[in-house]
Amino acid sequence: MSAAREMIQSVRTEVGKVVVGQDGVVTGLLTALLVGGHVLLEGVPGVAKTLTAKTLAAALDVQFSRVQFTPDLMPSDVTGQMTFSQSSGEFTFRPGPIFTNILLADEINRTPPKTQASLLEAMEERQVSIDGASRQLPNPFMVIATQNPVEYEGTYPLPEAQLDRFLFKLIVGYPAVDHETAMLTRHHNGFDPRDLVGAGVRAVTNDSVLAEARAEVGAMVVDDKIIDYLVSLVTATRTSPSLSLGVSPRGGAAMLHAAKAWAWLSNKSFVTPDEVKVIAKPVMRHRVALRSEAELEGVQVDGVIDGILAAVPVPR
């Protein structure tokens, strides 16, 4: 195992000192970080979505900002704005919280589409444009957005263009009984989730380690049969009778990069169909849309993706 891989793997241990029972979510966040992607976390309040993101940033030793998205939040509250200085008599730029390494967009679907759209350029181009001037964001830059299930009161569904910019949509569910028991035991023994230092969370990586890890992920071996398999899966979403919207070409590229990072985190040197199957639902579920008749029949998006995975031949 390379030094970079060992250090990135140790991030899981640090996050585990605070967050119990969310190993899949943590692996998904690390996968996205390794390929420069963004993650949408969906779950009911109180399942440690915010805590997971905050602890991850602490273990990575990167800058972290949190924005609570509310109905009255303005785009400039996220990106920053030009302000007039009385002393100099000039307008100067005051950066918003988006100028960070990891931005937690908390409850992103509680703010109107205009403010949601303030993230579009940043997520795709790693820059923001204000008053005709483009300003580069730090590297690395990652958006971790949380949202409540769309049926909750006071939510605004994210538009397709925004959803497509998230590498993963991860579902954060309730912990298993043994994990919840362990969590309550920690609290009983004095654990304070607001005190990450007191919980023993250490910074175990730096920028050079992350750059080395990303280079190793990029060098992962991908057989032509895996590429064909990915294309077949993406194409199947576009021809499915249950879906009105299939996975975009951006989504296909996201599947490739995510599979490479997932294989790397699994200590492999090449991608297998197993990695493709693991990342298929997190990459696809927010990029497709059900037909209205399928919704009326109670069809679920994840069920459609499972059917596609079962129907498309796996390369040998």
Keywords:
316 residues; two-stranded antiparallel sheet; 16% strand; five-stranded parallel β-sheet; alpha/beta; globular; 11 strands
Brief synopsis:
With 316 residues, this protein is of the alpha/beta class. The protein has helices spanning 3-16, 23-34, 49-60, 76-79, 113-116, 120-125, 160-163, 177-188, 207-218, 224-239, 249-265, 273-284, 292-296, 301-311; strands at residues 39-42, 64-68, 80-85, 90-95, 102-106, 127-130, 133-136, 142-147, 168-171, 243-245, 289-290.
Describe it for me?
By secondary structure, the chain is α/β, with parallel strands linked by helices. It is built from 14 helices and eleven strands. Strands 2-5-8-1-9 form a five-stranded parallel sheet. Strands 3-4 form a two-stranded antiparallel ribbon. The protein starts with a helix and ends in a 5-residue tail after the last helix.
SSE diagram, text form:
Elements: H1 3-16, H2 23-34, E1 39-42, H3 49-60, E2 64-68, H4 76-79, E3 80-85, E4 90-95, E5 102-106, H5 113-116, H6 120-125, E6 127-130, E7 133-136, E8 142-147, H7 160-163, E9 168-171, H8 177-188, H9 207-218, H10 224-239, E10 243-245, H11 249-265, H12 273-284, E11 289-290, H13 292-296, H14 301-311
Parallel strand pairs: 1-8, 1-9, 2-5, 5-8
Antiparallel strand pairs: 3-4, 6-7, 10-11
Helical coverage, percent range:
40-55%
How is the main sheet built?
5 strands, parallel
> In percent, how much strand structure appears in the residues?
15-25%
Mean of residue pLDDT values: 91
The gyration radius over C-alpha positions equals 20 Å
Category from helices, strands and their pairing: alpha/beta
Compute the number of strand runs: 11
User: Looking at the structure, what is the overall shape?
Assistant: globular
Order of helices and strands: HHEHEHEEEHHEEEHEHHHEHHEHH
As laid out across the biggest beta sheet, the strand order is 2-5-8-1-9
How many separate helices?
14
Measure the end-to-end span.
26 Å
Low-pLDDT ranges: none
